[in-house]
Specification:
Elements lengths: L4 H14 L2 H5 L2 E9 L7 E4 H15 L5 E9 L3 E12 L2 E14 L2 E9 L2 H8 L1
Length: about 130
C-alpha cells in the first residue's frame, strides 16, 4: 500500500524542521509550481527544485536562519492536501508569527503545486521587506 499524501507532506514539514532539504525535495515533483502571494522580496512564482531551493535559501537569509513552521492540522482529499500552519521568524531583531494555509496538489505521491494563503498579507509583506 502506498503512503498517503498527508503522510508524505507531514514528513516533508518534519524534514524542513530538521534542515533536511533533500528530504523535503524527495516529496516534490521535479516540475513543482510554488506560489507565494504579496509584494515582499519572497513573493512570486517559482518552478522546480532549483528555484524553490533559492526561495528557501533567501527565506533563511532574511530570517537569519530562524524560520520555523508549526503544523496544526493536515486535511487531505484525493489529490489535495491542506495544511493549517503558523510561520515563525525573526528579522532585524523583531520576532513574529503568521497564520497561513498551505494548499498542495499531489500526483503519484509527489507534490506538484503549492499555494500559500496568508492570514494578513500586508503584515507579512512589511515583515519580509
Amino acid at each position: 500500500m502506498s503512503e498517503s499524501n498527508s503522510a508524505i507532506l507531514q514528513r516533508a514539514y518534519e524534514d524542513f524542521a530538521r534542515g533536511n532539504i533533500p528530504g523535503v525535495f524527495a516529496a516534490f515533483d521535479p516540475a513543482i509550481r510554488w506560489h507565494v502571494p504579496g509584494h515582499s522580496p519572497l513573493s512570486g512564482d517559482y518552478v522546480g527544485h532549483d528555484q524553490i531551493g533559492a526561495f528557501f535559501q533567501r527565506t533563511m537569509e532574511l530570517s537569519q536562519g530562524t524560520l520555523s513552521i508549526d503544523v496544526h492540522n493536515v486535511l487531505s482529499g484525493d489529490d489535495l492536501v491542506v495544511v493549517l500552519a503558523t510561520i515563525n521568524a525573526r528579522r532585524n531583531g523583531v520576532a513574529d508569527s503568521f497564520p497561513e494555509v498551505h494548499v498542495w496538489r499531489m500526483r503519484n505521491g509527489k507534490a506538484t503545486e503549492f499555494r500559500e494563503y496568508q492570514g494578513d498579507e500586508q503584515r507579512e509583506d512589511r515583515f519580509w521587506s
